[in-house]
# Entry
Amino acid sequence: MLTSPLPLVSCRNTPPIKAYQRLTICSRRWNSVPAPKATSLAHPRVIFSGIQPTGVPHLGNYLGALREWVRLQDTAPKDTRLLFSIVDLHALTVPQEARQLKTWRREGFATLLAVGLDPSRATVFYQSAVPAHTELFWILSTVASMGYLSRMTQWKSKLDLPEDISLEDSAARSKLRLGLFSYPVLQAADILVHRATHVPVGEDQRQHLEFCRYTANSFNHLYGNIFPPPEAIISPAKRVMSLKEPTLKMSKSHTDKRSRILLTDSTEDIHKKVKSALTDSDASVSYDPVHRPGVSNLLEILSHFDGRSCEDLAEEYKSSSLQSLKGHLGSQISLHLEPIRERYLSLIADKTNYLDVVAEEGARTASANADITMRRVRKALGL
# Structure
């Protein structure tokens, strides 16, 4: 069990954070889906999810995934096993510079703790530190469907190819690498090696979970009932759109850094980015995602922190200016992210190797859990 060398800090009205246990973020709870029910007595509830290391996550990552992970941690029954991973092997589907990836891994791991994941309650680990993920990946590759994989959108979007393209296209074949094509198989292994029964995902990841369920059922049909087909916990958060191109999802790949808010942005930077957010020539406030995507995006972001619907917020601000809306939104985001930023900076600056200790402990726990699965798999296969 990991312990903190300093007292637990659980309120934002404190000096700079030095505690190294779970941060309690003093903020309004958001509307969210109820905690999932256990699937059966044979398979205790296990929740798994992962995020790629791309440095400090942005606001869309937080509202769409990380905050949901913390909610599940705080509301799940005590007998629920929780595993959250920096899935660094997935990052290798595109070329990476080693020093940069190492930095991003550490930044991503620190952020998971900064948002409120508690190492004494949830297992937090690097995917690459648990070899069973890749062992099961190879085994699942022997039952995974090439046809199913060829119809998935992941490799097409990464290569900027149209969704209706097939492997019959010579241009697609010349660009495609095996790792990117088989990405969903490794993703399935991540989930199944821990016998996960539930996976919190965004709506855009539902296709990958369906592939995981299909692969689990294919293996079970051939070798016996080893894997519980996992169920999705769909995040209640709508997609957070770019501040500069509100018809596109917020992303770090956008060339304009003002298009996204990072969890470690200062109050000044947050206000500047929100103030420069693209809207339209109409100075009024109304909620119309089709005709006014920029203003609607601001209202949707505000609704995540306020708890009220976009329509109710639009009604409140109908007699106000866009500048007033932007000012209030900037303040709400800053208020919510301030303790996360302080916690993150404290963890990154820590000289006691606390992050490494948490990662090593997480890897040991995750490996022990995965080994249970792999013993069953090897026995079923005759290995």
